[in-house]
Amino acid sequence: MKKLNQYAGLLGLLIFLTGCSATNRLTMNATEPAPVFLSREIQKVAVVNRSMASEKHEGIDKIDRILSAEGMQLDRKGADAAVSELLHELSADDRFSEVVMVDSLSLERKGLGVFPATLDWDYVRELCDTYEADVLFVLEYYDTDTRAAYRMTTRALPNNLGINVNVPYHEVTLNTLVKNGWRIYDPYGKMVLDEFSSQRQISTVGEGINPIKAVEAVMGREAAVIEQSKYLGNQYAWRIRPVTKRIARDYFVRGTEKFEIAKRRAQTGDWEGAAQLWEQELLHPSRKIAGRANYNMAIISEINGDLEKAIEWASRSYTDYRNKEALRYMDLLNYRVAEQAELERQLSR
Predict the structure, then answer these.
(1) What is the DSSP letter of 315?
(2) Residue 73 belongs to what H/E stretch?
(3) Does an H or E element contain 243, and which?
(4) Looking at the domain that runs over 44-241, which CATH code has it been given?
(5) Residue 114: which of 54, 64, 56 has the closest Cα?
(6) Which pLDDT tens digit goes with each residue over 163-182?
(7) What angle do CA 337, 342, 344 make, to 5 degrees?
(8) Contacts for 278 with CB less than 8 Å, ≥ 6 apart
(9) Backbone angles phi, psi at 114, to 5 degrees
(10) Is the dihedral of CA 15, 17, 22, 24 positive or negative?
(11) Which of 305, 289, 291 is nearest to 257 (CA)?
């Protein structure tokens, strides 16, 4: 009973602290510049699949040989799926007048799951001239690495007489790591505009009366790998586009009755109504309240898209009223200003 009372007390304290928080959180949309900048002058794109299915070393048992044999085909199918999805996404982008697939590439390599040396620039220029492309998007490597984990169980199965008996049963989990790496080549500036790698983990489970049957029961592995490969190709296409994200901000809701009313107005979406009340507290006799009011005016300025004004309010909250939260907020605002400048630069070129 004593422990129960202690737990109840801790729970009550947690609820009290949560309910008495001086701030509420809001989220808003913000657009950040594309991770990779491509000039608007780039109109034609060629996509190259330079990867090749990895050579797997044969294992000493049958399961390893099964996974090795399947792996080579799986790598090829997965790489094709990734490149096809990239081609599809780039073709849907209005900024490009043409997106073409390079049919074959003589510089195939053995898949090692790491970046190879960059393509020779004369060869890059030759490809771009042949396909009349301004840049090359290249899948440099693609590799799947599968590890099998075993678990022995028993299961009741009917024998020849129809009587259930416990028999050994095997469960095999195949953990497949999909790795890929991309580059974008500018043949005229002789620059690699982007080099990016990523990976995805896929787990599939099969069961059987022996380990081999359990592995054979994992029928969804290929479909799962191809689906994830499409996702990887899709995501790489988005690296050249500005990204809309959700950002979180905390604003003050306690201090005076006007802050309480402003909180309720904000909760109903009436941010301008909340700002009217915060503005009335800017010259409050309490430096703490005035600092919070200035901070919240910075919040409403950011909501309205006026980042420079938001910085002014946040600066005043810190310098005049020593609101430490405002100093941290200024760092976030300055970062957004830099992002906005880069975004405008990208959109204008």
Answers:
(1) H
(2) helix 62-91
(3) strand 243-252
(4) 3.40.50
(5) 54
(6) 776 767 778 888 889 999 99
(7) 95
(8) 258, 259, 262, 293, 296, 297, 300
(9) -140, 165
(10) negative
(11) 289
Cα separation of 174 and 152, whole Å?
Answer: 15
Contact 282, 295 (CB under 8 A): no
253-348: same fold as 44-241?
Answer: no
Pull the structure tokens for residue 2: 């004593």
The whole-number mean pLDDT for each consecutive block of 10 residues of the chain, a chain of 349 residues, reads 44 41 92 90 93 47 54 82 95 93 64 81 93 95 84 71 71 87 95 94 81 69 90 94 92 96 95 97 96 97 96 97 96 95 83
What's the residue count for the chain? 349
Q: How far apart are CA 46 and CA 49, in angstroms?
A: 10
Residue pointed to by tokens 């004004």: 309
- For 24-34, how does the pLDDT look when each residue is reduced to its tens digit (9 = 90+)? 999 999 999 99
Q: Write the class of the CATH domain 253-348.
A: mainly alpha
How many other C-beta atoms lie within 10 A of the C-beta of residue 28?
A: 13
Q: How far is CA 315 from the centre of its chain?
A: 33
pTM of the model as a whole: 0.73
Backbone angle region of 48, left / alpha / beta, with phi > 0 → left and psi within -120 to 50 → alpha: beta
Domain definitions of the chain by residue range: 44-241, 253-348
Tokens 């991309």 belong to residue: 182
Q: Give the SS3 label for residue 217.
A: coil
Tally of CA atoms within 13 A in the half-sphere of 163 that contains its CB: 2
| Cα–Cα–Cα angle for 168, 174, 175, rounded to 5 degrees | 140
